[in-house]
């Protein structure tokens, strides 16, 4: 039986989720503070953790970092509000498996739970005594059937694909730049699949998930008895990738000591396991990725300059989804096909309003955010096409309520420009203006009380049934 931990200072939400998930066969524990949750994680093994982003004693990003020091491969899904999309993108970058938006929908929670427990962020098979050493390393998108790498038709996408085709047949090391969620791992896999190494292993490693203490063991491997808990020898990720390609995502997160070891490996094409006495020759193509400029990081002393020049034989820039607006619906249709297959549905497409909203939205989470939005909308839809009522509010009301900030440039040495979106015209119809104002008041109150309907109803001076009807009316 899979064990789940719920972390939320709202006891009502914890109780509801606990009862719901228990009815579906899960063993569920609840913690009402981040500190309590960390103690529970240190004493008990959990297959999945749902954690609210806004706890009284810490934020979700803090819980991710602190829990990863205890269990490096712990699977965490962050619960966030409608207005926290940029926060959700940030927690994904920090290692969260996924995020779910309030108000919580039982079927969505159940589907997400089953998918998360079936993902490959798990400990790989190992000797029973070696369980103290996490065998993590890279994050997958779920247990769905993946239908391949989709090529965009925009000028930015074509330029990137031409670069991939050019460098793939060579043995060059490659640096891939791109924002979080833009698909850097898919680009790396595409390079591998188009190379002469395509029949050999492709190993992806999330360097952001490697703790300083375990990074050496994870990358180089270790010998039996090399440290407490090392009851058997274990090959590292580079050994497992021998003959093929290794992809090091978020390479700048590696500690200085590990960078020194990596430089030796790149120069000599040899490694030595932790606690080992002999070198092991390897033949591995190295592809690295970063969302920050490694040359600038080297100049600031955050990344070894000699290591940067070793990797910088070729550079590929992955465009953000904002730079491929004409491809948004192409990707959306692809994700819809995947969601139909995963959920056993036959939704044919998106209505005109949804297509218009998708093209206007700025997609701060890039392809990952688009995929999550499409999957959630597919789950909620019981009509032939996906309609706006199934979309998150930050997309539906993007022009009305959001002051957009220009995205961070791919290369941090460029200047960041803040751009305010034009103010929307006020509705001339009195009834529409009243409804708009009422919806905004409801949304703000619900966010203040973290979507606790009892508290919201008391604060608004209405009963729960009226509140529920208005939430449904305004798609809250």
Task: Provide an overview of this structure.
This protein has 476 residues and is α/β, with parallel strands linked by helices. It has helices at 11-23, 34-43, 60-70, 85-93, 106-117, 155-167, 184-193, 212-220, 237-240, 256-268, 294-299, 305-311, 328-343, 352-360, 366-380, 393-396, 398-401, 430-448, 453-460, 464-473; strands at 3-7, 27-31, 48-52, 76-80, 98-101, 174-177, 202-206, 221-222, 234-235, 245-249, 270-271, 280-281, 285-290, 315-317, 349-350, 385-386. The strands form 5 sheets. Strands 2-1-3-4-5 form a 5-stranded parallel beta sheet, with helices on both faces. Strand 11 (270-271) and strand 12 form a beta hairpin. Helix 2 runs parallel beside helix 3. The longest helix has 19 residues, at 430-448. The radius of gyration is 24 Å and the shape is globular.
Mean pLDDT: 80
Tally of helical runs: 20
Strand order of the largest sheet: 2-1-3-4-5
Major β-sheet profile: 5 strands, parallel
**Apparent shape:** globular
**Cα separation of the termini:** 34 Å
- Total strands: 16
The share of residues in helices is: 40-55%
Which percent band covers the strand fraction? 5-15%
Structural class: alpha/beta
Regions with little confidence, pLDDT below 50 for 5+ residues: 119-147, 402-424
Report the C-alpha radius of gyration, rounded. Answer: 24 Å
């Amino acid at each position: 039986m899979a064990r789940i931990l719920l972390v939320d200072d709202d006891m009502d939400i914890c109780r509801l989720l606990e009862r719901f998930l228990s009815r579906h066969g899960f063993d569920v524990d609840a913690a009402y503070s981040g500190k309590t949750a960390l103690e529970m994680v240190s004493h008990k093994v959990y297959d999945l953790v749902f954690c609210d982003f806004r706890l009284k004693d810490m934020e979700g990003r803090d819980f991710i970092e602190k829990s990863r020091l205890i269990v490096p491969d712990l699977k965490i899904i962050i619960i966030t509000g409608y207005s926290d999309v940029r926060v959700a993108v940030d927690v994904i970058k920090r290692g969260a498996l996924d995020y779910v938006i309030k108000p919580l929908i039982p079927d969505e929670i159940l589907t997400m739970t089953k998918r998360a427990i079936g993902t490959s962020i798990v400990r790989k098979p190992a000797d029973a005594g070696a369980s103290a050493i996490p065998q993590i390393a890279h994050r997958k998108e779920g247990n769905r059937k993946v239908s391949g790498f989709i090529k965009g038709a925009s000028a930015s996408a074509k330029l990137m694909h031409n670069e991939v085709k050019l460098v793939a047949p060579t043995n060059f090391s490659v640096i891939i730049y791109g924002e979080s969620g833009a698909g850097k791992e898919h680009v790396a896999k595409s390079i591998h699949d188009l190379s002469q190494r395509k029949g050999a292993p492709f190993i992806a490693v999330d360097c952001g998930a490697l703790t300083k203490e375990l990074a050496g063991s994870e990358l180089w491997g270790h010998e039996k008895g090399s440290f407490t808990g090392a009851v058997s020898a274990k090959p590292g990720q580079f050994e497992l990738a021998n003959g093929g390609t290794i992809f090091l995502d978020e390479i700048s997160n590696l500690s200085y000591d590990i960078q020194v070891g990596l430089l030796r490996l790149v120069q000599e094409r040899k490694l030595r396991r932790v606690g080992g006495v002999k070198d092991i020759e390897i033949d591995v193509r190295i592809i690295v990725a970063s969302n920050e400029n490694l040359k600038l990081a080297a100049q600031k002393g955050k990344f070894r300059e000699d290591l940067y020049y070793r990797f910088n034989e070729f550079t590929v820039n992955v465009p953000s989804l904002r730079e491929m607006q004409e491809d948004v619906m192409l990707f959306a249709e692809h994700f819809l096909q995947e969601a139909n297959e995963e959920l056993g549905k036959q939704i044919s497409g998106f209505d005109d309003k949804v297509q218009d909203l998708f093209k206007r939205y700025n997609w701060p989470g890039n392809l990952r955010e688009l995929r999550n939005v499409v999957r959630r909308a597919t789950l909620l839809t019981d009509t032939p096409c996906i309609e706006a009522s199934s979309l998150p509010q930050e997309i539906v009301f993007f022009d009305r309520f959001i002051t957009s900030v220009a995205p961070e440039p791919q290369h941090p040495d460029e200047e960041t420009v803040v751009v305010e979106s034009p103010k929307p015209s006020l509705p001339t119809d009195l009834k529409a203006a009243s409804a708009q104002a009422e919806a905004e008041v409801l949304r703000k109150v619900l966010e203040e009380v973290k979507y606790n309907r009892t508290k919201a109803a008391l604060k608004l001076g209405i009963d729960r049934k009226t509140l529920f009807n208005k939430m449904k009316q305004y798609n809250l």
